């Protein structure tokens, strides 16, 4: 039986979402309501383009020479790809049969189920986006506490699944020194981290909120500078 996903978009030659050159699949649907979301149009679960796995595989194979030459692969992002865990699992199984590396870009924002466990068993690398280490501040920023994300990180550690930790540095919101120290303390308990990345906040997705007739929640918050990133890295000893 042919499998389908709700697809938002694809990027054929990505270089920032995992190692090497990557084919990036953005799936539709997200339980979070991040105030700085640059893909606001991915939130709705049942929208997007109904796309078959076979059609995605055909497109992926066109980029395989570039992925092979750079030790790259396929990254599935969103939205929140855990919402479509069964599809991603079957996709990753197929990619492994073709010798293609698999990467999951997630906030770990859903409780771990058997379906998600199966997905992680077929995942080579997880890019885990920790929205905010402070539970209350995370809820204010995303609409949800960070409980699932923290449990997700602990689960990956228990299964020794490699992960890159990511956090967006938003001036006055995620750059507090005490919060970053708290983040450092938590990450020090994990043994499976291959890389920690701080990403600078920008408002390039603001137009998507406006196009949807919505007010951009972080109006007036400045974009992050290189100095902001360096300060965060210094606190974590990177």
How are the elements arranged and paired?
Elements: E1 4-14, E2 22-27, E3 49-52, H1 53-70, E4 73-77, H2 85-97, E5 101-106, H3 114-121, E6 125-129, H4 135-142, H5 147-158, E7 163-169, H6 177-187, E8 193-200, H7 206-211, H8 226-236
Parallel strand pairs: 2-4, 4-5, 5-6, 6-7, 7-8
Antiparallel strand pairs: 1-2, 1-3
Helix pairs in contact: 2-3
Number of helices: 8
**End-to-end separation:** 47 Å
Q: Average pLDDT, to the nearest integer?
A: 96
Helix content: 25-40%
- Percent range for β-strand residues: 15-25%
- Order of strands across the biggest sheet? 3-1-2-4-5-6-7-8
Low-pLDDT residue intervals, each spanning 5 or more residues? none
- By secondary-structure content and strand pairing, the structural class works out as alpha/beta
Number of strands: 8
> Taking Cα atoms only, what radius of gyration do you get, to the nearest Å?
17 Å
Please describe the biggest sheet, giving its number of strands, its sense, and whether it closes into a barrel. Answer: 8 strands, mixed
Topology as a string of helices (H) and strands (E)? EEEHEHEHEHHEHEHH
Assign an overall shape.
globular
């Amino acid at each position: 039986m042919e499998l389908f996903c709700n697809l938002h978009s694809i990027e054929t030659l990505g270089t920032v979402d995992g190692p090497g050159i990557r084919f990036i699949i953005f799936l539709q649907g997200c339980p979070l309501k991040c105030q700085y979301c640059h893909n606001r149009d991915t939130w709705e679960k049942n929208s997007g383009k109904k796309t078959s796995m076979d059609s995605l595989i055909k497109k992926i194979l066109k980029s395989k020479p570039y992925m092979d030459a750079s030790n790259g692969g396929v990254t599935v992002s969103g939205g929140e790809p855990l919402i479509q865990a069964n599809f991603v699992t079957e996709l990753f199984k197929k990619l492994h049969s073709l010798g293609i590396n698999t990467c999951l870009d997630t906030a770990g924002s859903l409780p771990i189920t058997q379906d998600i466990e199966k997905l992680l068993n077929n995942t080579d690398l997880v890019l885990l986006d920790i929205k905010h280490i402070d539970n209350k501040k995370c809820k204010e920023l995303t609409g949800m506490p960070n409980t699932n994300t923290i449990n997700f990180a602990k689960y990956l550690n228990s299964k020794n699944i490699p992960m890159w930790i990511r956090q967006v540095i938003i001036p006055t919101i995620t750059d507090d020194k005490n919060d970053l120290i708290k983040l450092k303390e938590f990450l020090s308990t994990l043994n499976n981290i291959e890389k920690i990345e701080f990403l600078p906040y920008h408002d390039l997705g603001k137009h998507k909120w406006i196009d949807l007739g919505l007010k951009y929640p972080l109006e007036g918050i400045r974009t992050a500078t290189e100095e902001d990133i360096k300060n965060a890295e210094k606190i974590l000893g990177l």
